[in-house]
Specification:
The protein has about 425 residues and is of the alpha+beta class. Helix content is about 40%, strand content about 15%. Strand 2, helix 1 and strand 3 form a beta-alpha-beta unit.
Length: about 425
């Protein structure tokens, strides 16, 4: 993969906002006749323009339906959904991330989609086989993923060359990544002025970073039955110690602790501004950087592992998707819209438009994938992507873990202490679920 190169020409990972879901809400959606209301997560302008100006008008022309689309910022999504459910005005269709599905199911908000999926052709079901499990709870389909997702390390080839590193042979282990990052890091007056490596450290990002490092060290976040925390382990301590060392100490290679560089506009991305040599990014952002900066040689490296571990792991899998409100009065039309979104042509158009990893296996043969070294790199690493656990209370669990990770990253607690205390709180959440 190190030989994938291109000249540089945005979830998930996005990704998952807190989900404060209450009970009740038995009033039907207020959509009437041949109209639908749809809420999409996120406020990426490229996606908004594609959906509202191209995809939805085509669907309306083909069906005669009227579709009202609203895009909501991730941090506001769950709050507004909860309020809408309580008021009986929730949309017919709404999008979210896979890890939020179990809580929606627990609160009886969703229409099961298994019967609808069964009506798809065998070819369609096989084509979507990698994505469908991410939208299931207890074997029942509730969410239809619109794309796959995952974060990989993107790096500036010219920085590697300047530092005496071979850009065609990127480091394969996390230990080697840290060594390379130390050579790439620049300081002035004892402060980092150019980061060798930036790992996501904002609230959601830090949990995803830890989960990837944990998996790459051979650990898991929860037990196999999903009933107890498993991250306060030797693998967990190894992962968190690595995360801390990236930001703290004399050999630190990262600055901007707590900042969210992943959601910055393309022109402000650290790889573009020259403020970093390696950053962890989703394919959308890498694609946009490539297109906007044709003179910048940005590449993507395979998922690193820790020495002695079997393989590297990155958080990913099924991306955000669409669900049908159980109280919708337009379920058949809602499914027609969702099936349109996941149809072969629209699916490729959508993922190509936003620079995402396609949900359909067949898309690997599309011109979109074949013409994009970025997407090829992510597609080839898909087997290393692992989703967060899809269990009730996951968003609360994620936020709890993130809180304790922040303490450790700011040297207010040691790795083992932070993880042990987080595990105790997580076990309480799991038991209440």
């Amino acid at each position: 993969m190190g030989k994938h190169r291109w000249s540089a020409a945005g979830a998930v990972l996005l990704l998952l906002a807190g989900c404060g879901l209450g009970g009740g809400g038995t009033q039907p959606s207020k959509s009437a006749g041949n109209s639908l209301t749809v809420w999409f997560p996120g406020t990426n302008k490229t996606e908004i323009d594609l959906v509202t100006a191209t995809i939805v008008p085509k669907f309306e022309k083909e069906t005669g339906a009227k579709v009202t689309v609203t895009f909501l910022d991730w941090p506001d999504l769950s709050t507004k959904l909860n309020a809408a459910f309580a008021a009986g005005s929730a949309p017919d269709i709404f999008g979210h991330g896979p890890a939020a599905v179990a809580d929606f199911v627990k609160n009886d908000r969703l229409e099961p989609l298994t019967a609808y999926v069964a009506k798809l052709s065998r070819q369609d079901r096989d084509d979507l086989a990698n994505a469908l499990p991410g939208g299931q709870v207890g074997g029942t389909q509730y969410l239809m993923p619109l794309s796959m997702q995952g974060n990989l390390i993107a790096y500036r080839a010219d920085d590697f060359t300047k530092a005496g590193l071979d850009p065609d042979k990127p480091p394969a282990t996390w230990e080697a990544v840290k060594e390379a990052a130390e050579k790439l890091t620049e300081r002035a007056a004892g402060k980092i002025t150019h980061a060798g490596l930036l790992l996501p450290s904002h609230p959601i990002g830090r949990q995803q970073t830890f989960a990837g490092l944990l998996g790459s060290a051979g650990g898991t976040q929860l037990s196999a039955d999903g009933k107890s925390a498993a991250f306060a382990s030797p693998a967990g301590v190894k992962a968190l110690d690595y995360f801390i060392a990236a930001y703290q100490g004399p050999d630190a290679v990262a600055d901007q602790l707590g900042g969210n560089y992943q959601d910055l506009p393309v022109a402000q991305q650290p790889l573009v501004t020259g403020d970093a040599s390696m950053t962890v990014l989703a394919p959308q952002t890498v694609q946009q950087m490539v297109r906007a900066n044709p003179g910048l040689d940005i590449r993507v490296m395979p998922v690193p592992k820790f020495e002695g571990a079997e393989q590297g792991v990155a958080v990913g899998g099924a991306g955000p998707g669409l669900m049908i409100n159980k109280d919708s009065a337009q379920k058949e039309l809602a499914w027609r819209f969702i099936s349109y979104m996941i149809s072969t042509g629209t699916s490729v158009e959508y993922t190509q438009g936003i620079g995402a990893i396609p949900a359909r296996v067949s898309a690997a043969e599309s011109d979109y994938v074949k013409s994009s070294p970025v997407i090829q790199a992510f597609v080839q690493q898909a087997s290393h992507f692992r989703p967060n656990p899809n269990v009730p209370g996951w968003t609360q669990i994620r936020d709890t873990l993130s809180k304790h990770l922040e303490r450790a990253l700011n040297k207010k607690a040691g790795a083992q202490e932070a993880l042990t205390e987080a595990a105790a709180e997580v076990d309480t959440i799991l038991k209440s679920g």
